[in-house]
Request: fold
Amino acid sequence: MKLGFSAEDELFRQECADWLNGQMAGEFKDIKGITKLTGSPERRKEWEQQLAAHRWSCIGWPSQWGGRDATLAQQVIFAEEYARAGVPGRINHIGIELAGPTILAFGTEEQKRQFLPGIAAGTTIFCQGFSEPNAGSDLASVRTRGRLENGEWVVNGQKIWTSLAHISDWIFVVTRTEEGSQGPKGLTFLMMPLDQPGIEVRGIRQINGDSEFNETFFTDARCPADSLIGAVGQGWGIAMGLLAFERGVSTLGQQMGFRNELDDIIAAAKANGAANDPLIRQRLAKAEIGLRLMRYGALRMLSQTDHKKIDGAALTYKIQWASWRRNLGELAMDVLGQAGEVSDHAEYEWDTLPNLFLFSRADTIYGGTNQIQRNLIAERGLGLPREPRYVPKG
Amino acid sequence: MEFAFTEEQQMIAETAQAFFRDNATSERVRRAMAADGIDRELWAAFCRELGLSGIGLPEETGGSGLGMVELAIIAEAAGAQVAALPMLGSLVQAAQAIAAGGTQEQRAALLPDLISGEAIAGYFYDGALKVEGDRLTGGAHYVTHGASASLFIVTDNRGMWVVRADDPGVTVTAQTSMDQTRPFARVTLADAQGEALADPAAALAAAHRAAFIAVAAESLGGAQACLDRTVAYSQERVQFGRPIGSFQAYKHRLADMMIEIEQARSVVYWAACAVDEQSDEADLAIHAAKSFAADTYFRCAGDMIQLHGGIGFTWEHDAHLFFKRARSLQSMLGSGNWHRERIATMILGEAA
Ligand SMILES: Cc1cc2nc3c(=O)[nH]c(=O)nc-3n(C[C@H](O)[C@H](O)[C@H](O)COP(=O)(O)OP(=O)(O)OC[C@H]3O[C@@H](n4cnc5c(N)ncnc54)[C@H](O)[C@@H]3O)c2cc1C
Reply:
C-alpha cells in the first residue's frame, strides 16, 4: 500500500501543470474559470482541439488512437492539475469518457478507425441517447424503434434529457429493434449523426435557467447498417458496459473540480464571517473529509487489480460523490445566506456557488438516481434479493 | 501509487482475521466481560504464538518493525470480533509512547514485557496533573483496562511519565462500564512516583497518531461486522412471506451502511499510509479517520439492532457488544466534533 506518487509521476505533474497554466494564461485565457455547463461552447470545442493537438485530449487511451497509454496515477494527476488550473469541464466528456471507451471495448476495427480519431481530435462531439419519457430508471423499457431498411437503420421515437445534444455531432441511441420484444432483450446500440432531417433537437430549460439538456425526436432518422456497436439485439450489454464507465473512472476529472467549489465556499465563509459559526465549521470539516475520501475512494477503485471481485469502492462511488456534492450546494447557500439568493445578472443566471446549489440537485438523478444506486449496492454488493417487477392484473 | 494491500499485508490480514474469528468467539468475549474484560488466553496467543503484538514497534525492542498500515489491519480484525484485549492502552498508546519518547534504557526495560503480554500498561491524560520533581498528583476516570494494568503512562500533554501501579501513591478502582469488553478504571495519583520519558513531545505525537488510527481501524472492522451479520440475518428471517432483505426500505438501509463503511475503509488506510509515508496530509488524515470511522461504526451498530428487531435488543444477541463498543470508541480520545473542529482550523488556515 503506497499513496505517494513516484518522482517520475511528480515530473509528469509538473509537465501537466506547466502546459495547462500556460494555456489558461495565454490563448485560452477567456475560458478560464467557466463553470456553466453550456458556457462558450464554440471556444470550448476549440479547446478540445487544442488539447488534442498536444496529445492531452484522451491520455488514458492507447497511443495508437491518440492517447498516451497513461497509467492510472497519471490520469489522476492530469485530472487534478486540470482542475487546479481552472480549466472548464470537457465539452466532449461523453465522447472521450463514454463513447470512446465503449468503442474501444466493443467496437470493430473499422469502427475504431471511423470514430476514435475524430473523438480524440475534438471534432466529433458525442451525446448520450438513453433516457426516454417512459424509460428513465427503467432504461430497459425503451420504445424508440429501429428497423433495417435497404441497408440502413431507420429510427423512430423520442429520447429526452439528452445533455448537450444541441452542440453535438453524434448521438448513441438504445433502440428496440426486435418487434414485440420486452425489457433488455431485442435492443440495439446505434451511433447516429445528429445533423440530418430525421432528427430534431429541442432545448429544455432547467431549474437554474440553463438549457443543458434536450428532447431529441427521431422521425425516420437514418444511419448505415453497420453503425451498431455489438450485435443486433445485444444493445443492453453494450449500454451496461457504458454505464459502468459512466459510474466509474470517467468522472474523476469532474470530482477533481469539486476541490475548487469547496475552496470557493471556504473563502466565502472567511470573508463573510460564517467561518466563526461552530456548526458551519463542522460542516466545512465534513465536506473536506468527504472530498478527501472521494479521492482516496477513487484511488482504491483504480488500484483494484482483481476485477473478479466486485469492488465495494467502485460500487459506492457514484452515490458517494453525488450526495456529497448536493450537500455541498446546501452548505454553499448556508454560508452565503440570502446573498446567495440574488444574482448580479439581469438574466436568470447564477454565479458558481448558487449555480452549484441548483445544479447539484441533478447529481443524485442522472447516471442512476440515488435510489437506483442503493438497489445496485444492495443487490450486487450485498447479494440481497432483486426488486420484484410489477405485473398489472388483467 | 498503489492503494491496495501488498501480498504481505494481505497475508497479515488473512492471518489476523482467521485468528480472531476462530478464537475471539462470542462465548469467550462474554466470559471476559464477566471478569476484567480480558481474555487472557487470547492475549497470550496473540502476543506470543501469533507474534502480532509487536507490529508498528521498532525491531530492536522486540517489535516487528512494520508500520501503521499493519497496525490498522490488526486492529480492524480485532474490532470485527469485539475482541476483549488490552491492546489499545497497552500496545498502541503506552508502547508507542515509550518507543518514540523513551531513552534506550526505558525502551529496553519496558517494551519487551508489553510486547510479550506479560505486562499490561494503562494510558491516561490529566490536564491538571500536579508535578513536583518526580512526584505526581492527579488522576483520570476513564482509563481503559486500568484495573488490569501493572504500570501507567501518564501525560499532561507537556510531560510524560511511567508510574508503577503498585506505587503506594496509586489507587485504582474498577468502574462498572457500559462496554465490558474494554472496561474503564478510575486511577488516582497522590504523590506517586513518576519516571519521566525523555522526549514527551515525540511520545505524545506517536501515541496520538497510533491511537487515532487503531480506534478508527477497530471501528471499521466493527462496522463491517455489523453489516455482514445483518445481511446474513436479512436472508434468513422471513416476514410477510418474503425474506426481510427483499424489502426496499431494508435494502436501502444496508446499502447506506455499505456506503459509509467503504469511506471508512478509505479513511483508515489513507491515514495509516499518510503517517507511514510522513505525508503532510497525515495530521488532517488522522483526525478525519477517528471522527469518520467511529461515527460510521455507531451508526451501523445502531442500524444492526433496528434491523434485527426484538432479538437485536436481547443480551443474548451480539448486537449490543458492537453497539456499546461503538459508543465507547466515539467518545474516547476526542469526540467527532472535536476532531472536525481541528480540521476546520486547518482548512480555514487559522492558528491552532
Ligand atoms: C441534468 C441531467 C442530465 C441528463 N443527461 C442525460 C443524457 O445525456 N442522456 C440520457 O440518456 N439521460 C440523461 N439524463 C436522464 C437521467 O439518466 C434520468 O433522469 C434518470 O435515469 C432517472 O430517470 P427519470 O428521470 O425517468 O426518473 P424516474 O425513473 O421516473 O424516477 C423518478 C423517481 O422514482 C425513483 N425510482 C425509480 N425507480 C425506482 C426503483 N426501482 N426503486 C426506488 N425508486 C425508484 C427514482 O429514484 C426517482 O426518485 C439526465 C438527467 C439529468 C437530470
Remarks:
- The CA atoms of residues 63 and 355 of chain A lie 37 Å apart.
- Chain A touches chain B through 53 residues (CB under 8 Å).
- The radius of gyration of chain A is 22 Å.
- DSSP finds eleven helices and eight strands in chain A.
